[in-house]
Amino acid sequence: MHLSLPPRFYRYSCFLSSQRFPLLAMIGVAAPLLLGVGCQRNSSAQSAAQSLTSPAPAAPTTAAPTTAASGFDADRTFADLKKQVAFGPRVPLTKGHTACRDWILGELRKSAGETAKRQDFTVGLGGGRRLPMSNLVAQFNPGAKKQVLLCAHWDTRPTADMEIDADKKKRPIPGANDGASGVAVLLEMARQFAAKPPPVGVQIVLFDGEDYGPGEDRMYLGAKHYAKRRALPKPDYAILLDMIGDKDLGIWREQNSEANAADINDKIWNAAAALGVTAFQPGVKFTISDDHLPLQAAGWKAIDLIDFDYGPWHTLDDTPAQCSPASLKAVGDVLAKVVYDEK
Fold it and tell me: Which pTM value belongs to this model?
């Protein structure tokens, strides 16, 4: 069957949660919806076919089994996830957004010192209105020739647009997995880099405005700004973390990442295999619009590590109860091996 849908449609069948949509899940209905939403899944005929798991290209397997490069504290990382959620929605112009921004920056400065800074910018909303936002940046081993960028978004979706109830749709999401999980892992990585300096330069950038919306013209805002006005030298490659805290974690190679930087995907999947981390699945599954696309458009190698098989996505159920310290540690251990194995 040849499936051809406009680019802002996506195929919904593999996203259905039996808990939230029991009837649809039972009968396997695929409901194409016209949405412009964060971490959006695209579905042309090609990407729809790739939504069925396709094998990944064979990757070199030179890494020998080993233990994690450093001591990733899963409990502390999970506490950082919950701390972000406790601030409330991290939507620009809210108290939770400001308080969480200042807390994250303070945590980064404990590890990275004065290299941890805000990159403030504004986004036009029409009618003369401007929305203030802040990317957060930090750097380790800045003099190294090779530079690796680790990034995530720290804001949350202003509307729970995947809810069924009309009133619930208007409320902001908690953003435990979609927002807080990637930030929590990178805060813990920063502590590791402070304790054990990496052999290469590591840049940490936390983007604002990834999920503002409602349409894609008002999304990935921090990444778009950073790609045009980066605060640090151009990295050799970038690894984006998004929705990596799901307690039933399964991360597949993402199609835009595979097309742009298959060799960086290979680094991740080889490290996972060496560590025995089974959450990284052997194949290409989704085609995702996310913060890595503005980086790719700027000519950078960039990949997206994301578990999009997540039922509470853009709902009020995206809470810490849906996340796991073990999932955060799995991703953190793989990242640590990739970074510390660099030369």
Answer: 0.84
